[in-house]
UniProtKB/TrEMBL annotation:
Gene3D superfamilies: Histone H3 K4-specific methyltransferase SET7/9 N-terminal domain (2.20.110.10). InterPro entries: MORN (IPR003409). Keywords: Repeat. Signal peptide: none annotated. SUPFAM superfamilies: Histone H3 K4-specific methyltransferase SET7/9 N-terminal domain. One of its GO terms (cellular component) is cytosol. Coiled coil: none annotated. It comes from Spumella elongata. This is Phosphatidylinositol-4-phosphate 5-kinase. Pfam families: MORN (PF02493).
Length: 121
């Protein structure tokens, strides 16, 4: 939909590189629930605000890595989970995309770590 010559409401945009966004728009920006499928094969499904990932969402990368949780300004922030291609799971608090604070890692080999993280360490 269009309002005052700007995307507004629900619609689909396909860019010249093959990236496809289907979802809600406000003032010509991705805003609300949507699905962004990059031409690389990476897909994000979730909430947007002001054109960026913002709110709950799930990002699936072509290498099999999945990022799921709360996004702020395009990055995981707050409670989140990353599932790696080998099945390992990192679950905990994220700050600007980095696992920081209390978290749990369950590795594919069965090893487990529960404790404090700072920038994924």
């Amino acid at each position: 939909e269009m309002l005052h010559s700007k995307r507004h409401g629900y619609g689909t945009l396909t860019t010249t590189d093959g990236t496809v966004y289907t979802g809600e728009w406000q003032q010509n920006k991705k805003w609300g629930k949507g699905r962004l499928a990059h031409s690389s094969g990476n897909v994000y499904e979730g909430e947007f605000m002001d054109g960026k990932r913002h709110g709950y969402g799930r990002s699936t990368n072509t290498d099999g890595t999945i990022h799921e949780g709360n996004y702020v300004e395009g990055k995981l922030h707050g409670q989140g989970k990353i599932t790696l291609q080998d099945g390992s799971i990192l679950d905990g608090q994220f700050v600007a995309g980095q696992l920081t604070g209390t978290g749990t890692a369950i590795y594919a080999n069965g090893a487990k770590y529960i404790g404090m993280w700072k920038d994924f360490q």
